[in-house]
C-alpha cells in the first residue's frame, strides 16, 4: 500500500520478517497506522537471500541421503545425483524470482503502508526517505538487519567473491568452490554445494566448525561433510587472493576466471588453492552505518543496544529489533523481538503499564533455540557446557548416542548424539544439543523444558512416544538416574 501521508503512529525502517512483525503487532486490533520503509524487497534477507532459499536447497539433499539409507528405495536411487535444475527451480518458487508482490499484498491486508526507499533518522520521531520527511506519533522501529562482511584480505574484494546471497541464489554451480568460514552459513552452503555436485574446500580460521556450538557438534558435522567429499582446512587463514578477469556477471553466477587463494596454515598444494569461485561466509555487519543514528548522539555502524523492551536506552520512542541489535541473529528470535516491541509500542500508546511478561524479550538471554541444517542437523537451545561453566552454573552433563527404535526406523546406519547441560543446583536443563539426521524437530521440547525451567524429576513423567527419535529423552534421563539421581 503506497502512502501519501507523512504522519504515522509507527514508522518501521526495514521490511524484513522482523520489521513486518513489529509493525503488525504495534497496530493490530487498533486504529493506529504504521508504515514500513524498505529500500530493497519487502520480506528482507530471510525471504529472498537467506533462510528460505537455503532451506529449499538443503531439503532435497536430506531426502536423497535418507533414500540412500533406506532399503527398498536405495535400489531405485542408486548413485543418481540430484536433478540440479529441479532443485534450483524449487528454490526459485520460494523466492518468487525476487518479486515481493505477495508480501505487499500481505502488508495491505494487515493495514500497513509501504514506502520504498532508504530510511534515515533526522531527529526525534522523524525519518527521511529519499527527501521526504515522515513523522511518528508514537514510535520508530529500526529493523534493518545485517549485510555480509567481506574481510579486507589483499585481493579478496577485487576478486568479486560470492557472498551468501550468491550461494543461496545460485544459478551456476562452480566445479570447485573455496569457502572462507566455518560457521553456520559456511557449513550449510558447503552441504548444498556438495549436493549440487561442486567440489568444496572450506578454509576455517578456528580449530572446528560451528564454533558457537558444543564441540562434538562441529566434529560430527565436519566428519559428515568430509564423508561427502569436502576438504576442511582448520586453523587456516587466507593471506591473499587473486583472480583472472573478475566480472560482475550477476548474483549466483560465476564471477570471472579461476581464483587463487594463498592459505596460511595449509600444506595443501604448497598453501595455494585454485578454485572456480570463492564464497565468503565470514560474518555479518549491522546495517546501521547510514541510519542517521549520529543525529541522536548514537554510534553509527554498530549493533544497536536495546533494553528488554527493545527500546534504545534514553530514547523511549526508538526501538531496534532483529539482527541489527545483535542479540540473537535468527529469524525466529528477531520475530519474537518484533512481537515484544510491537506489544510494548501498543501498550505505551494506550497508556498501559509494562508489567506483563509479554513485554520483555527474556528468551534472548540464554534461551535461544537454533537449528543448523547440515547433513547431520544440529538442533540446540540455551547454554553450551562452556557457556554454562562461564556463567558459574553447577554444571552436570548427560550425553548419549542417539540409538533408539525411532532412529533406527528413520534410516539405516542412523548416527547421532544428544547432550543435556543440567544446572545441578536447580535440577533443571539450561542447555541441550541434538546432532543427527532429522533432529530439528526435537529442539522445541528442549526449548519448553529450558524456558519453563521444568525439573528433571517432572520430565521423567513426560513420556516420549514409541517408536520416535524423541525416545532419546528417556535414554538421557535414564543415564542421569544411573548417575545416582
Ligand atoms: C544464508 C543465511 C541463511 C540463514 N538461515 C536462517 C535460518 O534457517 N533460520 C533463521 O532463523 N535464520 C537464518 N538466517 C538469519 C536470518 O536471515 C536473519 O536472522 C533474519 O533475516 C533477520 O531479519 P531482520 O528482519 O532483522 O533483517 P533482514 O531480514 O536483513 O531485513 C532487513 C531489511 O531492512 C532493509 N533495510 C536495511 N536498511 C534500510 C534502510 N536504511 N532503509 C530501508 N530499508 C532498509 C533491508 O533491505 C532488508 O529488507 C540466515 C542467514 C543467512 C545469511
Q: How is this structure best described in words?
A:
The protein is α/β, with parallel strands linked by helices and 485 residues long. The protein has helices spanning 17-27, 44-48, 51-68, 74-77, 84-95, 101-109, 164-168, 184-195, 215-227, 331-349, 385-390, 405-410, 443-451, 456-459, 472-482; strands spanning 7-13, 34-38, 112-116, 119-123, 126-129, 132-142, 146-148, 176-180, 199-203, 231-233, 237-243, 259-264, 272-275, 277-280, 284-286, 311-312, 315-320, 369-372, 377-382, 395-401, 417-423, 428-436. The strands form five sheets. Strands 1, 2, 3, 4, 5, 6, 16 and 17 form an eight-stranded mixed β-sheet that branches. It has a five-stranded antiparallel β-sheet with strand order 18-19-22-21-20, with helices on both faces. Strand 12 and strand 13 (272-275) form a beta hairpin. Helix 1 (17-27) packs parallel to helix 10 (331-349) and helix 3 (51-68) runs antiparallel to helix 5 (84-95). The structure holds flavin-adenine dinucleotide. Flavin-adenine dinucleotide (FAD) binds next to helix 1, strand 2, helix 2, helix 3 and helix 7.
Amino acid at each position: 500500500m503506497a502512502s501519501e501521508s507523512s504522519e504515522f503512529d509507527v514508522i518501521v525502517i526495514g521490511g524484513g520478517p522482523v520489521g513486518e512483525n513489529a509493525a503488525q503487532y504495534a497496530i493490530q486490533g487498533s486504529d493506529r497506522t504504521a508504515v514500513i520503509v524498505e529500500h530493497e524487497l519487502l520480506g528482507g534477507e530471510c525471504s529472498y537471500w537467506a533462510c528460505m532459499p537455503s532451506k529449499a536447497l538443503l531439503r532435497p539433499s536430506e531426502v536423497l541421503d535418507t533414500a540412500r539409507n533406506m532399503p527398498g528405495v536405495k535400489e531405485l536411487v542408486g548413485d543418481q545425483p540430484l536433478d540440479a535444475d529441479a532443485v534450483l527451480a524449487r528454490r526459485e518458487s520460494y523466492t518468487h524470482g525476487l518479486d515481493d508482490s505477495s508480501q505487499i499484498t500481505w502488508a495491505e491486508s494487515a493495514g500497513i503502508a509501504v514506502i520504498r526507499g532508504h530510511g534515515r533518522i533526522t531527529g526525534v520521531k522523524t525519518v527521511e526517505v529519499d527527501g521526504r520527511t515522515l513523522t511518528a506519533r508514537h514510535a520508530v522501529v529500526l529493523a534493518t538487519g545485517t549485510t555480509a562482511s567481506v574481510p579486507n584480505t589483499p585481493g579478496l574484494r577485487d576478486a568479486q567473491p560470492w557472498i551468501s546471497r550468491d550461494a543461496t541464489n545460485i544459478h551456476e554451480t562452480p566445479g570447485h568452490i573455496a569457502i572462507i568460514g566455518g560457521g553456520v552459513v559456511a557449513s550449510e552452503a558447503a552441504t548444498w554445494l556438495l549436493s549440487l555436485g561442486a567440489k568444496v574446500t572450506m578454509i576455517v580460521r578456528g580449530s572446528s566448525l560451528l564454533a558457537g556450538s558444543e564441540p562434538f557438534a562441529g566434529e560430527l558435522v565436519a566428519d559428515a561433510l568430509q564423508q561427502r567429499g569436502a576438504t576442511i582446512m582448520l586453523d587456516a587463514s587466507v593471506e591473499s587472493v587473486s583472480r583472472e578477469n573478475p566480472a560482475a556477471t550477476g548474483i549466483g553466477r560465476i564471477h570471472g576466471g579461476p581464483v587463487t587463494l594463498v592459505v596460511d596454515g595449509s600444506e595443501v598444494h604448497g598453501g595455494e588453492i585454485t578454485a572456480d569461485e570463492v564464497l565468503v561466509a565470514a560474518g555479518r555487519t549491522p546495517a546501521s552505518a547510514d541510519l542517521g543514528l549520529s543525529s541522536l548522539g548514537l554510534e553509527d555502524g554498530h549493533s544497536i543496544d536495546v533494553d528488554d523492551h527493545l527500546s534504545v536506552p534514553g530514547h523511549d520512542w526508538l526501538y531496534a529489533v532483529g539482527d541489527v541489535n545483535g542479540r540473537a541473529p535468527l529469524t525466529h528470535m528477531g520475530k519474537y523481538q518484533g512481537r515484544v516491541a510491537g506489544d510494548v509500542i501498543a501498550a505505551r500508546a494506550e497508556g498501559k503499564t509494562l508489567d506483563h511478561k509479554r513485554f520483555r524479550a527474556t528468551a534472548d538471554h540464554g534461551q535461544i533455540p537454533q537449528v543448523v541444517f547440515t547433513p547431520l542437523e544440529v538442533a540446540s537451545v540455551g547454554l553450551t557446557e562452556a557457556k554454562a561453566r562461564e556463567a558459574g552454573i553447577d554444571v552436570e552433563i548427560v550425553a548419549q548416542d542417539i540409538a533408539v527404535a525411532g532412529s533406527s526406523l528413520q534410516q539405516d546406519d542412523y548416527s547421532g548424539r544428544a547432550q543435556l547441560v543440567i544446572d545441578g543446583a536447580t535440577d533443571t536443563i539450561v542447555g541441550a544439543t541434538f546432532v543427527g539426521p532429522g533432529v530439528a524437530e526435537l529442539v522445541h521440547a528442549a526449548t519448553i523444558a529450558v524456558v519453563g525451567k521444568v525439573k528433571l524429576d517432572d520430565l521423567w513423567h513426560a513420556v516420549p512416544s514409541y517408536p520416535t527419535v524423541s525416545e532419546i529423552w528417556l535414554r538421557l534421563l535414564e543415564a542421569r538416574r544411573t548417575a545416582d539421581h
